[in-house]
Amino acid sequence: xxxxxxxxxxxxxxxxxxxxxxxxxxxxxxxxxxxxxxxxxxxxxxxxxxxxxxxxxxxxxxxxxxxxxxxxxxxxxxxxxxxxxxxxxxxxxxxxxxxxxxxxxxxxxxxxxxxxxxxxxxxxxxxxxxxxxxxxxxxxxxxxxxxxxxxxxxxxxxxxxxxxxxxxxxxxxxxxxxxxxxxxxxxxxxxxxxxxxxxxxxxxxxxxxxxxxxxxxxxxxxxxxxxxxxxxxxxxxxxxxxxxxxxxxxxxxxxxxxxxxxxxxxxxxxxxxxxxxxxxxxxxxxxxxxxxxxxxxxxxxxxxxxxxxxxxxxxxxxxxxxxxxxxxxxx
Length: 331
What we know:
The chain has 12 helices and 10 strands. The protein has helices at 8-20, 37-53, 70-84, 100-118, 129-141, 146-149, 173-182, 199-214, 219-248, 263-267, 271-284, 292-299; strands at 28-32, 56-63, 88-92, 122-124, 155-159, 162-165, 249-253, 257-262, 318-322, 325-329. The strands form 2 sheets. The chain has a 6-stranded mixed β-sheet, sandwiched between helices. Strands 7-8-10-9 form a 4-stranded antiparallel β-sheet.
């Protein structure tokens, strides 16, 4: 490795880790490395900071076999790990992955299983503020609410003893590229990043440059900051929604089993919390991934006249108003 010394990026990541308490001292960390500039930058930064934090590091590479050079890519990552003298785990898909979503699900499952099996407490990825901006735009055009717009968070649980951690969320892709160049790190270019059939590539290469040129040169930073603001607000709403859910939802066992929502409790709460309760209710009780329309249909019963009812939800459940209660009967 070429000696870089202590750069401003080292300093920023070091301070971020300390302030946000993302990767405690002496942790066992599994770094997800694709061979692209973000994951190489992340790996090098963590290796350089290792002496200050006493981490035990390892590298994991997920081979999707989507590209003709995928196996060579995996070999390259393994060579880097050997050069850096850290353990390396390479996992290869057994059958074709048909979409980005399926590939992402497989990748996180593989990383989680590896961490659990090998005793690592965190899976660390190289997502940046640029990824955060792209994700916000991607979810916005798909109609996501606040939860989707702040989806790339600093950390979230993957399993009971494993956290997914993203230490570079206040760094931009331009910075990781410059870092790799200064450190003489050879970046493995992913040809699928040029494939415009993938919506994220069109956002990165077409939409964001257009917004930068015609609306705001700092749009990437602005969107990333918006996602950070939404993250805190979503955390607050989740906590308040959880309290309201516990107060409002009960189960009534009689001749049939009904789930009951207390309208008198819900009426006193803001619409934002009412919607969160209804969304969680549909997810938990009816096992749905609810649409906006389904959440609204159930929320409307909070103020509806007595004996009002919905048409059946998927699976046949019907919600009806009985006095101060919304009764939901599952078939």
